[in-house]
């Protein structure tokens, strides 16, 4: 008996020792985690000063979000921005005892242990709390091999306890909602609300809130964009849990359950969404601005646009931008079909055509292979290797098995476009379309491209002429002239004129875009004076001193052309395009004001008020009866519009500039390969290639009553003096004598010779070629 008791005592001691050793080991193990052996545990001080990476927001003129710059797509908001049904949905789904525990819910843990582990009952739910999830969201998890789950859970429990000691329950909910990951690489409830429903968190309805909370269980599996049915089922479960806990009524639940989820998905990635070219330009400007020494964060360091949660306020108008993009897409899809059909089997982009062969030699891949001293055959073999390639299409993107040369041929056929609309008085950019699709064509035709501007330069020639004394009712013969001192250059008109014995007034010649007269006006005015006039109107590019500038051979950007045309509706002063109006930090403190970003420079008048009024009347005539008259005849616009079409040699560029009292819009259309133009003038002229894009844009503008201040704005009536000055016949027939003896094509030098004689020194000829 004694022996038996002794054995029991021995076993009891062993068990006690076993428990003690196990407890000691567990305690040491816990201590090793607590004191940072498995990695640093954030201190209370560090937890009290949490800094989270936040996306920079780009806002339009109405403070609507148009884009972000980020590594983690997150915007922090306050507790007051959370609707109560959002908070209720989270607590009902993730942590019903949130307000009762101190970060670790022991009751839930025991329930999970007994029901899930011992009884294999999977309906018992999880043991994690909102605070534990917050700890995981803040610091993530690490790989510790087979101990990973245990170590990470204990680390999170320590952090959760410290969070509960530092923050109130409201603050914990705020931290949680601002850090929790949502589908599509989105962090925080505000970013998720913007992305999936195009709204702010405070405006989420019950269905939207439950949908987003439902995704927390599995970001991918319950992504409403990818798996709408699974997401709907999960949302309905959230609603049911809320009803079971009396957080919503039966009626509120019935109004949501089994209803489709109505997404309004917004793309904020760099190559998707609204205004991608504009956002790319904003990023460039923002990078440059924040490099300046005066713009430093509170720590004295340069701001980081990917982390510091800045707010960038811009001039862009969300709705006008959408109208511009829609107009571009509608027109360019149709024009592309016309463009390809007109060429048929003789397209210049086809393989072995000169334009294609030249483009091939400009390929980076070709040049790299050439530098390796490979034979022509080896280079050709390499460029002909096929691989899966995603291709842009006006219908929808496709994936095909193509070689590098196949891709070159495919993309070489596409026309591209640029469009810029700005307020003439302020320069504020309202719409900015840099190309047909940023994902596939990232070259910006507004800020980066310079192309010949064709007849859109002619108003500058006429402006200079008027400013230098030419009368508005001056007349010029339309007959061709060969300029013997310019390599026998003979400017020709775009179309044959029935009666070559007519003289045209300036207004009529400009409205019909007569080339021969534009050159003659330039000759009378002087090349130097015209170039001076162009620079005074805001054009910065160099302009070659040749007579051909009268026909628009200068390479200019859309922004330069837009700036120049603002002078006609801005008291003769050019308005420089304005992008950014203000920059704030994440706390709303102003970093840079409008005055900082757009310093006021003395604006001098580029020409007189009389010249401005006359030129505006000339440009209105272009729309009413000239090359842009289809705005009246085809589109039936009654708006006050002035403008100018433009087409370059071989129909390589089509232009249209539309002037309205409160909006100046420039449109360009062409192929990025400047060897490829339209096959004929009927479809390639600016009136057909570029003007319709403006027309479609204006149709959308006219249909929106919110923009009547723009669409119904009227030009100021010209003075009586100007009306008298331009009150003359549009054309005059030459005298009988000139008709009889002047039919032959004239030849003369472009440069006017100095008159000789005793008083010739009194009249110095300043003109030069």
Description:
The protein is an alpha+beta fold and 769 residues long. Among the domains are: 198 residues, Penicillin binding protein transpeptidase fold, CATH 1.10.3810.10; 127 residues, Beta-lactamase (3-Layer(aba) Sandwich), CATH 3.40.710. Helix content is 42%, strand content 12%. It contains 31 helices and 22 strands. The strands form 7 sheets. A 5-stranded mixed beta sheet has the order 2-1-6-16-17. Strands 10-9-20-19-18 form a 5-stranded antiparallel beta sheet, with helices on both faces. It has a 3-stranded mixed beta sheet with strand order 3-5-4, with helices on one face. Strand 1 and strand 2 form a beta hairpin. Helix 3 packs across helix 10, helix 13 runs antiparallel to helix 28 and helix 18 runs parallel beside helix 20. It is elongated, with a radius of gyration of 36 Å.
Helix-strand layout with pairing:
Blueprint: H1 2-34, H2 44-48, E1 56-59, E2 65-69, E3 73-74, H3 84-94, H4 106-118, H5 130-139, H6 148-166, H7 169-179, E4 181-182, E5 186-187, H8 189-197, H9 206-214, H10 228-244, H11 250-254, H12 276-290, E6 311-314, H13 318-343, H14 354-362, H15 364-371, H16 376-383, E7 387-391, E8 398-402, H17 404-412, E9 415-422, E10 429-433, E11 451-452, H18 458-467, E12 475-477, E13 481-483, E14 502-505, H19 506-511, H20 515-525, H21 527-536, E15 555-556, H22 558-566, E16 580-584, E17 590-592, H23 594-597, H24 609-625, H25 630-633, E18 642-647, E19 653-660, E20 663-671, H26 681-684, H27 686-689, H28 691-702, H29 708-711, H30 720-725, E21 731-733, H31 736-741, E22 746-748
Parallel strand pairs: 1-6, 3-5, 13-22
Antiparallel strand pairs: 1-2, 4-5, 6-16, 7-8, 9-10, 9-20, 11-15, 12-14, 14-21, 16-17, 18-19, 19-20
């Amino acid at each position: 008996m004694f022996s038996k008791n002794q054995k029991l005592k021995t076993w009891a001691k062993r068990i006690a020792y076993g428990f003690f050793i196990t407890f000691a080991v567990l305690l040491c193990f816990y201590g090793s985690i607590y004191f940072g052996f498995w990695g640093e545990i954030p201190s209370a001080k560090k937890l009290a000063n949490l800094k989270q990476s936040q996306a920079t927001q780009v806002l339009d003129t109405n403070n609507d979000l148009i884009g972000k710059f980020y590594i983690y797509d997150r915007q922090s908001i306050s507790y007051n921005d959370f609707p109560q049904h959002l908070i209720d949905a989270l607590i009902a789904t993730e942590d019903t005892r949130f307000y009762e525990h101190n970060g670790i819910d022991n009751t839930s843990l025991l329930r999970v242990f007994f029901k899930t582990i011992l009884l294999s009952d999977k309906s018992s739910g999880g043991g994690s709390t909102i605070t534990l999830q917050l700890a995981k969201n803040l610091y993530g998890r690490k790989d510790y091999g087979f101990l990973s789950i245990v170590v990470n859970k204990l680390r999170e429990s320590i952090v959760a306890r410290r969070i509960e000691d530092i923050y109130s329950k409201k603050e914990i909910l705020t931290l949680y909602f601002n850090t929790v990951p949502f589908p599509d690489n989105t962090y925080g409830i505000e970013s998720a609300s913007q992305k999936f429903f195009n709204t702010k968190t405070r405006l989420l309805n019950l269905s939207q809130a439950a949908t987003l909370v439902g995704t927390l269980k599995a970001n991918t599996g319950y992504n409403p964009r990818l798996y709408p049915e699974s997401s709907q089922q999960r949302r309905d479960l959230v609603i049911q849990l809320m009803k079971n806990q009396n957080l919503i009524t039966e009626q509120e639940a019935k109004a949501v359950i089994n209803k489709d989820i109505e997404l309004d998905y917004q793309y904020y990635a760099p190559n998707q969404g609204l205004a991608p070219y504009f956002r790319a330009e904003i990023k460039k400007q923002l990078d440059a601005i924040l490099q300046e020494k005066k713009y430093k964060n509170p720590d004295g360091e340069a701001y980081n646009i990917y982390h510091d949660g800045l707010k960038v306020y811009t001039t862009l108008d969300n709705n006008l931008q959408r109208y511009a993009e829609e107009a571009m897409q509608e027109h360019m899809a149709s024009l592309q079909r016309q463009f390809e059909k007109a060429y048929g089997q003789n397209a210049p982009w086809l393989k072995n055509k000169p334009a294609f062969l030249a483009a091939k030699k400009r390929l980076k891949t070709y040049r790299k292979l050439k530098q390796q001293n490979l034979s022509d055959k080896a280079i050709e073999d390499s460029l002909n290797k096929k691989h899966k390639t995603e291709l842009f299409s006006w219908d929808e993107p496709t994936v095909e098995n193509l070689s590098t040369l196949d891709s070159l041929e495919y993309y070489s056929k596409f026309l591209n476009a640029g469009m810029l609309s700005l307020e003439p008085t302020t320069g504020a950019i309202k719409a900015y379309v840099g190309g047909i699709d940023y994902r596939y064509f990232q070259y910006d035709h507004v800020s980066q491209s310079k192309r010949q501007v064709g007849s859109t330069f002619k108003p500058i020639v006429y402006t200079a002429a008027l400013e230098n004394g030419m009368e508005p009712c001056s007349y010029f013969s339309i007959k061709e002239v060969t300029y013997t001192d310019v390599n026998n250059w003979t400017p020709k008109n775009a179309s044959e004129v029935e009666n070559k014995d007519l003289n045209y007034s300036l207004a009529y010649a400009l409205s019909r875009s007569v080339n021969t007269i534009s050159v003659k006006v330039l000759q009378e005015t002087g090349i130097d004076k015209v170039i001076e006039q162009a620079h005074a109107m805001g054009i910065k590019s160099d302009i070659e001193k040749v007579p051909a500038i009268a026909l628009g051979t200068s390479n200019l950007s859309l922004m330069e052309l837009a700036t120049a045309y603002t002078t006609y509706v801005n008291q003769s002063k050019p308005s420089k395009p304005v992008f950014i109006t203000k920059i704030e930090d994440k706390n709303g403190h102003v970093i840079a004001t409008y005055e900082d970003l757009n310093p006021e420079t003395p604006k001098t008048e580029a020409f007189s008020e009389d010249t401005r009024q006359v030129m505006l009347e000339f440009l209105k005539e272009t729309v009413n009866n000239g090359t842009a008259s289809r705005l009246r005849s085809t589109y039936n616009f009654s708006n006050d519009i002035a403008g100018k079409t433009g087409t370059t040699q071989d129909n390589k560029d089509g232009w249209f500039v539309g002037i309205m009292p409160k909006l100046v819009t420039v449109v360009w259309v062409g192929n990025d390969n400047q060897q490829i133009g339209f096959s004929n003038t009927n479809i390639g002229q600016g009136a057909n290639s570029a003007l319709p894009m403006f027309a479609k844009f204006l149709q959308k503008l006219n249909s929106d009553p919110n923009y009547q201040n723009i669409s119904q704005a009227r030009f100021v009536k010209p003075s009586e003096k100007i009306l008298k000055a331009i009150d003359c016949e549009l054309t005059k027939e030459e005298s009988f004598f000139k008709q009889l003896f002047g039919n032959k094509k004239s030849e003369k030098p472009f440069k006017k010779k100095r008159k000789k004689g005793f008083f010739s020194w009194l009249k110095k000829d300043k003109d030069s070629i």
